[in-house]
């Protein structure tokens, strides 16, 4: 298994961090779990807004969750396990299987955000595939994607 450094993450940012000292937006590895056969599950935090300061609205969180779901299925079909909103409304939990390279994960995220800018609808925003299908807003998702892309250079800066 590759080490945290070899994967491109800063070792002192792995694990749980004091939420008062992090600097959103950022992407960081939270944990890596190796199975008995050498497969590895990676848990990654996509922190969008500053904890205890700024929060995503429930509609932003929900539409973004759908876009991230569609996007990781598109860009990492063999590695994607799940993405879920943080209950504190400041970001998302991403789980990947056998893909923990920082540069790859930054690039998946960048591709997904660019796709949002050009999207004509929120994916899966229909009564068959969503549990609150009217709770979506494409324009809010686009504004958020634009803001995150403008701050791309700070994604690696966790602290
Ligand atoms: Zn939904």
Question: What's the topology here?
Answer:
Layout: H1 4-7, E1 26-34, E2 40-47, H2 58-75, E3 80-85, E4 91-97, H3 102-117, H4 138-150
Helix pairs in contact: 2-3, 2-4, 3-4
The chain binds zinc ion (ZN).
What does the model show?
- It contains four helices and four strands.
- It has a single domain (4-153), classed as S-ribosylhomocysteinase (LuxS) (Gyrase A, domain 2).
- Strand 1 and strand 2 form a beta hairpin.
- Strands 1-2-4-3 form a four-stranded antiparallel β-sheet, covered by helices on one side.
- The protein is 32% helix and 19% strand.
- The protein has helices spanning 4-7, 58-75, 102-117, 138-150, and strands at residues 26-34, 40-47, 80-85, 91-97.
- Helix 2 packs across helix 3 and helix 2 (58-75) packs across helix 4 (138-150).
- It is an alpha+beta fold and 159 residues long.
- The structure holds zinc ion.
- Zinc ion binds next to helix 2.
- Zinc ion binds at residues 62, 66, 130-132.
Which class in CATH terms?
Alpha Beta
Fourth CATH level, the homologous superfamily: S-ribosylhomocysteinase (LuxS)
CATH third-level topology: Gyrase A, domain 2
Strand order of the largest sheet: 1-2-4-3
User: What is the share of helical residues?
Assistant: 25-40%
User: Ends: how far apart?
Assistant: 26 Å
Bound molecules: zinc ion
Global structural class: alpha+beta
Counting DSSP E segments of at least 2 residues, the number of strands comes to 4
Overall mean pLDDT stands at 97
Strand content: 15-25%
Give a quick account of the main beta sheet: strands, pairing sense, barrel closure: 4 strands, antiparallel
